[in-house]
Specification:
The complex is a heterodimer of chains A (282) and B (441).
Chain A: H1 2-20, H2 31-34, E1 46-59, E2 62-75, E3 79-83, H3 90-98, E4 105-110, E5 113-114, H4 120-130, E6 131-134, H5 146-156, H6 161-174, H7 190-202, E7 208-212, H8 220-237, E8 240-244, E9 256-261, E10 264-269, H9 272-281
Parallel strand pairs in A: 3-8, 3-9, 6-7, 7-8
Antiparallel strand pairs in A: 1-2, 1-4, 4-5, 9-10
Helix pairs in contact in A: 1-6, 5-6, 5-7, 6-7, 7-8
Chain B: H1 12-15, H2 20-24, H3 43-56, H4 58-96, E1 101-105, H5 117-124, E2 129-144, E3 147-156, H6 158-163, E4 183-185, H7 186-191, E5 204-211, E6 223-231, E7 234-236, E8 243-247, H8 248-255, E9 262-267, H9 273-282, E10 286-289, H10 290-333, H11 335-343, H12 348-391, H13 404-431, H14 435-438
The chains are: A alpha/beta (282), B alpha+beta (441).
The structure holds adenosine-5'-triphosphate and magnesium ion.
Chain lengths: 282, 441
Amino acid sequence: MDEIKNKIEAGGERIAKMNEAPTQSDESKSDAGFFPEFEHHSNTDIVVGIKDVEKTFVLGTNKVDILKGINVDIKRGEFVMLMGPSGCGKSTLLHIIYGLEAPTNGTILVEDEDIWAHSKNWRAYFRNQFIGFIPQQAFWIKSLSVIENVAVPGFIGGRGYRESIERAYKTLEIVGMKDWAHYRPFDLSGGQQQKVSFARSLLLNPKFIIADEPTGNLDQKSGVQLMDLIKEFNESLNITVLMVTHNPDQVNYASRIVKMVDGKIMDDIIDKEQINAMKHEA
Amino acid sequence: MKLNFFSKKNDVSLESEAGYEKRHHAVSRPKETWKETHTGISFSMIAYISWKNLKVGKARSILTIGGVALGIGIITFLLSIGFGMQQMIVSEVTKNNPIDVIDINNGNLDNFVSLTDDVVNKVKNIDGVKKVERRVNTGGKIILGESQTDVIIYGTTSDYLDMLRVNYRDNGGSFSNDGETALISDRLANLLGFSNPYDAIGKKIVYNIALSKEVSSSLDAEKVTDNNEIIISGIVNNSDNTYIYLPTKMLQDKFGIDSAQDGKVVVADMAKFDNVKQQLEQMGFVTSSIAELIAGINSFFSTVRVFLVVFGVIIMSISAMGMLNTLSVSLLQRTKEIGIMKALGTKRYDVFKMFILESIIISFVGGLLGFFGGYGLALLANKVLIILGKRMGTELSYFVYVPTGFVLAIGGFVLFLGIITGVMPAFRAAKIHALEALRYE
Ligand SMILES: Nc1ncnc2c1ncn2[C@@H]1O[C@H](COP(=O)(O)OP(=O)(O)OP(=O)(O)O)[C@@H](O)[C@H]1O
Ligand SMILES: [Mg+2]
């Protein structure tokens, strides 16, 4: 078994080396070439439509309303920052959009598709193929190396080891983590782990990226690096980003700020000057 | 990944303002055309991840696999020796006794019957009988020069001797049904003064023979006929008795012996074996056949095997508990990882497969190691026995034997073990929710 594994890994490395060959080394801004399948199947510009979403948790005999009618349309290419006090329901909303937690009422449309009108398996596939997710705390499969972890969405989608690893290597290269490919993920620093998380979220060319406080556990410098990286992808590939953050220093990365308080939208700001002003307010 | 399910129109979402809970029970769920495309994790990747997981918990995996290997090993060891001994004994028994022969004799005093020509003809007429050969025995004395020895005198035919697997030809001996020939046992040759029994071949001896009504129907009283001469024509080896074989026809011509005590009945059709035997018994013969002995041996070993199987089941339930424990602990430790897999889009069924496969790997690797370990150990024990036997002067061979059926049974059992112990943990793993991974501590 070990032999097979080594062979597979050697194969992955060979492919990776092939990709490093000089003829292809001008990859600096050719990321789009790596995402040939990045196509939009809909002519609507609204990637995520959040319509009248309500969420009520039942705790024993108590019913707690967490989301009280959320309406937001996220357009293609937007970098949306979701902000608000702790406990206001930001993560809950993300989980509903990600297809993990059912809304009590309302609709989530992803490119016109009502994701909560489908089966569990449908949503599993949807998450796998169409959404990149970066959590606050990186999560890993302990038994797999960094590159294998990045390749996991590929495995899950039914791709073979080689193909997934090859893609994983490319994405790791893009986020500048290829030298760490064969480390154990938990041996990396928090900032490095989040970059790898980002690489994993990119693996299958998502329609949009959901990030729940991705810099929450990072030091200032790593946080800035990660934000720069995400922003770069947002701009160069027009990937839609929906991010929760508590850090007002990061508002200038956003093209839109959505402020939530107590399960409701308080503010929805698109104006760049207004956004920059928010930074100075803080 | 050319999927266009996103462009598909979804009527359900437009139709109702009611809660999702209600709508999920509605009949008109949209058709999921991509389902064929969502193949899930490929089998080789599931195997790879399962294997990696086993490697991470190395000590635990080794212990668990060792538990299974120990159980299967002990069972294989005992059964391969058992099967081997059975096979060896049966082949040893059938080597000297053809399976299609019924031995008959007139040992039953209540219902005395002698193998006269008439009786032999009757026996031949039984349906399913191929042929009958008989052997008469009586007392006598052999004289050569100064030495005199009491012997059993057998009168028989070369066919009877062949059925008895008496080998005299390889040593240069011969026996003629129609001529005047005599085979003597090597013991007798020794007693007659030949330290090398083969030196006796070609020597003329004198014999007395005791005659009675039992062997010669024309006689009224017992008598002894003295001073008959014959030339020794062959030696019967490995005898522990003193006897001489003479041709039936010669005894009949010379002494009027026309009856016999023992016979061998060859059955032409094994399907009629029991029937022939029954009829022979009705005629008053005491019968015996190797088939009975073999049946007895087989039933003995079957009983032994039943005990071994019970013993094996006990051992294997202990191994199974070890496996269950390992899988449960592994499940608890990996709750979060399973959540991750789910969050990234793994199907329930794939998680289920992953755990089942892990369990099957444990039981299969354990089974494989156990089988070869047990078999190897049995061979080793066999080898030791052979060496010990050699020292004590007995020739032993390798007898350890595993029937194909047993190998298949072990394989099937190991698969069963893997599935049965894996089902519960796998089911629980499949039910873990993706949010388990996203809950920050
Ligand atoms: N499964 C659940 N059952 C019951 N209550 C829940 C559940 N999940 C979340 N909540 C509650 O919902 C509220 C909103 O939680 P949520 O995690 O969405 O907040 P948040 O805005 O992300 O906060 P933070 O900024 O601290 O991450 C909290 O009061 C939380 O306790
Ligand atoms: Mg949160």
